[in-house]
From TrEMBL:
Gene: prsW
This enzyme's EC code(s): 3.4.-.-
Membrane topology of the entry: Multi-pass membrane protein
Family: Belongs to the protease PrsW family.
Any one GO biological process: proteolysis
Signal peptide per UniProt: none
Keywords from the named record: Cell membrane, Hydrolase, Membrane, Protease, Transmembrane, Transmembrane helix
Taxonomic lineage of the native organism: Bacteria, Bacillati, Bacillota, Bacilli, Bacillales
Protein name, as recorded: Protease PrsW
Amino acid sequence: MIAIALSAVAPGFALLSYFYLRHELEAEPLGYVIRSFVAGAILVFPIMFVQYAFVEEGVLVGPFWKAFVATALLEEFFKWFMIYYTIYIHKVFDDYYDGILYAVACSLGFATLENFLYLWVYDSIEIAIWRAVLPVSGHALFAVVMGFCLGRAKHSTHERFWLFTALMAATLLHGMFDYILLVEPMNKVPAVVYIVVLWMVALLLVRTANRSNHRQYK
């Protein structure tokens, strides 16, 4: 059981550490990063309750609706809402990369607790490996895109456009990922390829956000 627990939480903390260290200008207050992580974890239970209600009522159970609405839109909206009201409007959110860092922290808090509960039920190291590669990484990468847009919103005259784009971009990327898994549940290759492409996009956005910071504080 200890091995399963460590397997459940290790990917989330490893990814959070990676994105925390990629901030090139200054280290963000660790307390606020942890706060975002915990806020994301808190979201697991109300979201699970709503998703359970959908299943019980037979609502949004088709592959498309389940992937894009019952899962992606629901989860990404609550994460977006939590990030906006706990961090975005706070003065600590003051540069382009902050959006990425705090969005990743919130999403990984959600993904880590969700992963722990899932592995607690299935108790399998093999499943733990696949979940680290796919769902946990996926949540972090969707968050990079959301956070990049939030960082732009903070410094743009078109704030509402970027806030809306943050939510919709993360929802579409998340929905596509879940749809791939629902349509090809036994074939993980398409999902792995999708995650690899998202990693390339995420690294580009990380680099772009850091460059924007350097230009801002020149």
